[in-house]
Sequence to fold (269 residues):
Amino acid sequence: MAETCLLDALRRRLRELDRVVVAFSGGADSAFLAWMAHDTLGPSAASAVTAVSPSLAGEEAADCAALASEWGLRWRTVDTDELARPAYVANDTDRCAHCKSELMDALAPLAEAAGATIVLGTNLDDLGDHRPGQAAAAAQGAAFPLVDAGFTKAAVREASRALGLRTWDKPAAACLASRVPYGTPVTLGTLDRVGRAEAALHRLGFRQLRVRHYGDVARLEFDVADLPAAVALRREIVAAVQSAGYARVTVDLEGFRSGNLNHPAGAGG
Fold:
């Protein structure tokens, strides 16, 4: 019953917005929102747009294309260039604000041409973390239908499961820059190194993980349940991460924690 009420509330909110452009990163939240917008408003009033840049893992970009094809979404990509913004490269605690400003600048012409509102897949749980990007997006006119309808992360996953969306249990996948501690400049080389290391670990069978970047040292976070497998595959893991350009490989025994570098002041997802 609660799930039905949430879905009804989301559909009402989307109809109020009338026409939307969904910022579609391929994660569980934005995928759910893109599917719901398409199902509620139809392809003439709902489109999904994926911002492609060095901070988006290649695997995620490919999955966006696959999901759009599977679900029949009206979908396109736009290029964004966060690295052209010195404040983003400097990587202070407001890095995400500069990233979201770049995203909004790229999506705004598309939304304006369609008479649409830009919508993001922010949920209620996101409001409790350090998320300066949300404020930046809101200041530029973005709406957050999942928040308005009362969706938590768990509710998004449960509703996605009930609707048969394969993204219901997709691991969280924040942008690659979130692996870089605040104060360490974000560069193309760093993003490439992190992305290649994580892709190599995914190929070894690990779904939920982070490669935290500390210069030549990679600090790996796996789900706690996967730590025994990580120990068993330590030689393969070291080889995979070193092949991406890291000299030393360490494992965080506390396991994967989304946003853990935000406390007290690190990076993000």
Summary: The two ends are 32 Å apart (CA to CA). The mean pLDDT is 93.
